[in-house]
Specification:
This protein has one domain. The chain contains eight helices and no strands. α2 crosses α4 and α4 packs across α8.
Amino acid sequence: MFEIDVVSSVEIENFHDDCDDSHELPHDQDAKVDYKVFDSCDFYMNHVQDFAIQQILRFFSDKELHCGGKIPHSLLSNPKRVNLVINLDLDSSVKIFYDHSEKLISEDDLAKSKRTGEASWDIIIVNEVLRLLSTSGIPQQFSGGMLLIYLELVKGYDIKL
């Protein structure tokens, strides 16, 4: 079982002070966010796993497994899932889910979506989970892995990771 150190607000405020920002580029709204920017930050690199576990446990504390019952901490703090949260970006996780759900969308679903102009269920569920992650205060760099864990454990999709 993992021990989780609570990160104080002072440590979080000082988070950016420890980072070498000599590699920063001017702000460009169309630029893609590169999460590797944190590689030079000692605080982040030394605490990312603990912080990720803390965020996972906090987010899923009130969620239940798709088949019922509380989600065991051992499932949530599994090294495979923690590594997903730390290393998987949002674009990749959405692509993984859409590749998986593509096999599950019926012709009727696609026809209805085209006829009505509404999004198909896979797009709707991804948007709902991303909104939930955002309103729960999950850091954006963790949302890719958290999305897939939520879809797997809470919604019951058998996503092969």
